[in-house]
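Weekly structure sync, notes
Attendees: PL (lead), two postdocs, one rotation student
Agenda item 3: pending single-chain targets
PL asked that the sequence for the first pending target be pasted directly into the notes so everyone works from the same version. It is reproduced below exactly as submitted, 411 residues in total.
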Amino acid sequence: MPVGLVALALGSFGIGLTEFVIAGLLPQVSRDLDISEAAAGWLISGYALSVAIGAILLTAATTRIPRKAVLVGLVALFVLGNLLSAVAPSYAVALLGRVAAALCHGSFFGIGSLVARRMVPPSRASRAVAVMFAGLTVANVLGVPFGALVGERWGWRATFWAITGFGVLAVAAIAVWVPAWAGAVDEAHRAAGLRSQLRAFRSRQVCLTLAATALGYGGMFGAFSYIAYTFTEVTGFSSTDVAWLLVVYGSGLVIGNVVGGRAADRDRDRTLIASLAGLAATLAAFGLLADGRVASVVLVFLMGVFGFASVPGMITRVTDAAGGAPLAASANVSASNVGNALGAWLGGLAISAGLGYTAPLYVGAAVVALGLAVMVVTARTGRAVSPPPAGRDQASGYAWLDQERPHSTSQ
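Predicted structure, written out during the meeting:
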């Protein structure tokens, strides 16, 4: 495995940690900064909105800059944002730090996925993306308990100091380990610029794949947003059990990411269809069996597995459909965050309508089923969208994948 992929995974772990760690720190932040719980909640929702916006804006603004330099700059922004949160004298500064850290999130994963796949042969593209995203999935497992542990012992600011230090390590790793050729921008793409990338969104395949991403994520996170209530109010677990149940879910994300990446390199569209079908079935079964403890543990694990198995394949699919445009890869991250917001909103509406705490699971299953239908149509109408063989000519639009690539990929 190229050591550059490890550097990208370190970056994704740090960014993922920043996203998830705040959930265990909100009560401390609220007390220390003398703000309401609702205001503290904006440290989470403000982050999510900034991810969706930053993914497009920063990728568009840096389209002609070498991608390795962009990645180093994005992680440096991540460091600055967490440093602001660590020293924040007020709520406004803490929120500004969260927004700054979030702006780099989407672009890092979008641009990083392109750099990751350049370091391996085309037949291993989805696996390379999965390695980079492994940091994010591990952060999902460790983020909340890490934040709670450090916060309880040394205060919530210590958590952000620790993440800042980790960010500095990630900057150094990317600067040293990611090869320059993997992050280079070829002259054709530099000359084409943003206008060419925007034209990629005229592609039906690009738009359908983004829609499938939004719906798949929306269904899963719409259910996940209220999973603690399902566990405590329906299944009968205590509130202290929720932490280890979330670790079970996070472990499923890690496994789904690895398995999904490998499977997508063999048959991408079939993997995406199977993962969405499995997720829809899991959510529906969870709704039916939520009153059983054993069934709930098994199903929340499968929810994580199927929920993240589609991630590597979705990113490689949308970038292939867009001819390798970085903006498309970042748009995939934005689509997932839009889906998250939509799913959480729909799940909340179902609970408010008096349908109970299993309602978000059924709503999630319906949303994912719609995403599955979109993916089936996408696959049937776009069989030509597949990773190109190495050495394809300039006319294919993928020559940039092979430009300056060394014969050996073991570095």
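Discussion points:
- The mean pLDDT is 83.
- The CA atoms of residues 218 and 339 lie 4 Å apart.
Action: rotation student to compare against the earlier draft before next sync.
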